[in-house]
Amino acid sequence: MSKSNIWTEKYRPSNFxxxxxxxxxxxxxxxxxxxxxxxxxxxAGPAGxxxxxxxxxxxxxxxxDTWRDNYLELNASDERGIDVIRQKVKDFARTxxxxxxxxxxxxxxxxxxxxxxxxxALRRTMENYSNTCRFVxxxxxxxxxxxxxxxxxxxxxxxxxxxxxxxxxxxxxxxxEGLEIDEDALEIIADASEGDARRTVNILQSTxxxxxxxxxxxxxxxxxxxxxxxxxxxxxxxxxxDFISARTKLxxxxxNGGFSGQDIIxxxxxxxxxxxxxxxxxxxxxxxxxxxEFRLIEGSDPFIQLExxxxxxxxxxxxxxx
Length: 322
Description:
The chain is α/β, with parallel strands linked by helices. The protein has helices at residues 3-10, 23-35, 51-63, 82-93, 116-128, 147-151, 163-177, 183-193, 197-208, 216-222, 228-239, 243-257, 261-272, 279-297, 302-317, and strands at residues 40-44, 71-75, 104-109, 133-139, 153-157, 180-181, 213-214. It is built from 15 helices and seven strands.
């Protein structure tokens, strides 16, 4: 297990009370677990927000010390073919649990990566062995899971963690590891994590390996994102009509920081709503920002596209319709 995974496992909650965020989901799942009245479950939502962790908590609460004997975890993105469902999953599901609980649990992570044939085979397995096994499926996009499987599961939708929840995780880790974190640094980590607890842990681990005193300057060396102050200068120059200064500053930020066009786009999107311009203009610029990001993903030249975006800011600064 890599050092990064060790950190992640170390701070993975071990019971329902330790889970931050997803309060409604946790409350409902805890009720099912306490009553041992658990259907097949489908957890859907972005990465790093607690889907796998909650599945593991359910298993540990059900089986206690024998949870490893009654739990099978597979990553469907690695083992995504029909043979896995017909052999490994089916063989595990057909045997009885080695505990007082009448069923075993199979956890399929990234279930939306299963092929359609594998999903249809899984549907039959879920139906035939419901007396001896419960399935917990985790996915980023529930729409990629076929309807027959969705109809057999209780669907729980997870959301990105709020900033206060991420801050709570940071403080918990800092207290346990003896880290000293400045308030400014804490804010930057919470923003950079974008609601992803796994990313939060990785940022903390990277900075803590350099120094136990985590400052704003130290975070800037680890987090790969453009400084808000630099992006703000670029946008303010463009809005004032000084396209050349905005372009020069943009080039400086990209070259000195080694940022990609998409990194800059994300920084612009964050700062856009803090600018002193009319809401209607902000909406139009947001639309333009999304258009430029799409072109970058499709392979267009980053600097030319960002110049085009700056030109839109110059036009907006003059109060003209884009």
